[in-house]
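Aim 2 progress update. The chain analyzed this quarter is reproduced below.
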Amino acid sequence: MIWNAVAVDGDRVFVAGPRWAGANGPAVALIDGKDGLISYPDASWNAWQPGADVTNTFVNVNAIHRDNHGGLWIIDTGSPSFGGDPLPGAAKAVRIDLATNRVERIYPFGPPAALPGSYIDDIRFHGDHAYFTDAGRAGLIVLDLRNGETRRVFDGAPSVTAPTDRPIVIDGEIVRAPDGFPLRVNSDPLEVSPDGRYVYFGSLHGPWSRVETRLLDDPGVPATELARKVEAWADLPPVGGTAMASDGTLYFTELASDALKKRSPDGTITTIIRDSRLHWCDAPALADGFIWLPVPRIDRVSLFNSGTSRIAWPIRLYRYGLDAQAK
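Predicted C-alpha cells:
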C-alpha cells in the first residue's frame, strides 16, 4: 500500500490510499501489529476490479476519518484514474461501525453533488451535517446525515479553486501533473472549529477561507448570499494535510519544508518538526495525545514522474507525542 490517510481507534490503526498511486494492496487496511495488513472491513470491499459493480466496493479511496460516535468513514472518490470522472454510482461516503466492523450506511454522491471531474477529497462533521471538499471540480459538498441529501456549494468559486501563482514546490522543484503543467489541486483541506461555528477550507495551495456552518446547513440560503459570507481566514502554504485540536490549534504538514507545523488560535505559526523523512507527509490524525503522520511521498509515484516510480519502500507511518512537545 501507498497510504495517504490514517485513523486510530484505541489500539487499532487504519490506513488507506488511492488506487492511482500504483500500489497493489487493499484500499483500506487495519495494521495488525506484525508488519501485516488486514483488508477492512473485509476482503470483498477491497476487491474491486474494472468492470465490476461499484456499489459495495471501494473504487478509489482518498480519505478515512473517525467520527466521535464510534464510526469510521471511508471516502470513495469513485474515480479509478487520477483526474478521471467518477464512475456512475461509485462516488460515496461509507460509514463503518467500529464496534461491529460492519458497514452501517452508504451515502452515494450523484449529480449535482459529484459531477464529471469531481474528486471527493475529505470529510468533517458538525451536528447533523457532514462537509466534503471536491479537489477535482472545485467546490464543497454538504451532506444532511439524517436524510442523506447532498448539496453542492461554492461551485468553481475563487475560495475553492487552486490559484495559478502558488505552485506546489518540493525539493526546490514545481510538482507537475501528468500533462506536464504545474499540479493544481482544488478544494482539499477543511476543518470545523471546535465550537462548530465555522468551516475552514481552501485549495491545497492556500489561502484558507471560512464560512459559518449555520449558513452551509441551511438549504434556503441563496448561493449569492452564501458567497458573500465567505471570509478570509489564514494564508497557509501548500499543505499535505491538517488536523484541528479541541483548543482550535491547527496542525498542518508543509510540503515545501518537510515539516509539521501548528497554527495557534491567535494565528501564530510554529514549526514542530522539520525532517526529510516527512517528505510529502499527508493527512495526519490526532489521537490520545499523539499526532499520526502517514508519509506516502505522493509526488514520487510514477504518475508524476513520466511513468517511472521513485517510491522508496517501505511506506512509513510515524506518530509524535504532542503532550511531550508541549512540556
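The longest strand covers residues 102-108. Residues 223-228 form the longest helix (6 residues). These observations will guide the mutagenesis experiments scheduled for the next reporting period.
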